[in-house]
Amino acid sequence: MGGMTEAQAKKLGELLMHTREKQGLSLRTLAERVGVDYSWITRIEQGAFTNPAADRLARVAEALRIDPARIDRASHNYLADSLPSVHTYFRSKEKASPEEIAEIEAAIRKIRATHERRKP
After folding, report:
1. Are 104 and 61 within one domain?
2. Ramachandran area for residue 24 (φ above 0: left; ψ -120 to 50: alpha; else beta)
3. Residues 6 or more apart from 46 whose CB is under 8 A from it?
4. Are residues 56 and 114 located together in one domain of the fold?
5. CA 106, CA 99: separation in Å to the nearest integer?
6. Whether residue 109 has pLDDT greater than 60
7. Are 5 and 75 in contact (CB under 8 A)?
8. Residues 74 and 90 in one domain
9. How many folded domains does the chain comprise?
10. What is the pTM of this model?
11. 12: Cα within 13 Å, side-chain hemisphere
12. What domain range is 94 assigned to?
């Protein structure tokens, strides 16, 4: 898995900073919500990270209520490419059995199929 280009990192940082400022949040407040040091938020907003920790980036997006698709557009799919698969996530994080994972994956396929039928 590769990182972003410097230009992509800057674009991502601008998106995060603009959204944070629009919501009236300070760096420290956002950092507390995300559970990271505020200097990390500062550096990502400055575009200093071309390979930021995906879990942190996802938490920032969630705290700012940014659609992950916007993060991926700014970073050329960095977040999507960096996160584990559903199988890996549930196996390692939730200690799900192979049977449970199969059930989760089937449910996801069903949800996706339903939404695909609804698209114009």
Report:
1. no
2. left
3. 13
4. no
5. 11
6. yes
7. no
8. no
9. 2
10. 0.72
11. 34
12. 86-118
Residues 65 and 106 in one domain: no
In a domain, 20, yes or no: yes
Q: What is the residue whose two structure tokens read 């009236």?
A: 24
Check: CB of residue 75 under 8 Å from CB of residue 11: yes
Token duo for residue 63: 């705290």
> Do residues 6 and 16 make contact, with C-beta atoms less than 8 angstroms apart?
no
Confidence of residue 92 (pLDDT cuts 50, 70, 90): confident
Contact 4, 48 (CB under 8 A): no
Contact between 96 and 84 under an 8 Å Cβ cutoff? The reply is no
What is the separation of C-alpha 54 from the centre of its chain, rounded to a whole number of angstroms? 6
* Weakest mean pLDDT among 5-9, 32-36, 51-55: 51-55
Q: Using one digit for the tens of pLDDT, what is the confidence trace for 11-52? A: 999 999 999 999 999 999 999 999 999 999 999 999 999 999
Q: Tell whether the model's pLDDT for residue 104 goes beyond 80.
A: yes
